[in-house]
Amino acid sequence: MNFSAPPEKILRDFEFRNLLMGIFLVLISIPLFRQPRAVFSVLLGVGLSLLLFQYLKRDGREIAARALAGVPHGKILRSFLVKYYLRLLVVGIFLGILFYLRLIHPVPLTLGLSVGVIQLFWTLLELGMRKILAQAR
């Protein structure tokens, strides 16, 4: 990942790498878990992770635009938190129903939901290695 690129390019690269990591996790879960329910759980987790990242990105842009337009900080924060917690509630209810119906398994779901976190650690490791290698020269 090119960390000297403009922020939008870095964000697009991060999203693309999230997608690749998600595809990798789903493909690796097929022989690892060998159960359709578990593979579906990983797939659902990856899908939710990617979808919620898009919402967070959109909210970040909206916050920046509203701040530049002079909207008071408190109003921006309240608006963001209401939308964020409503979205969290909807996802929680959705997952609760799927758990109740025994359509998903918690461990593979957690693996799928972790795609963004795994990618973040991978990116930070890459950045750290670049700095270490640059100092060694």
TrEMBL record:
UniProt-listed InterPro entries: ATP_synth_I (IPR005598)
Superkingdom of the source species: Bacteria
Keywords: Cell membrane, Membrane, Transmembrane, Transmembrane helix
Membrane topology (UniProt): Multi-pass membrane protein
CC annotations in GO: plasma membrane
Entry's localization field: Cell membrane
Protein name per Swiss-Prot or TrEMBL: ATP synthase subunit I
Membrane-spanning intervals of the chain: 16-33, 39-56, 84-103, 109-129
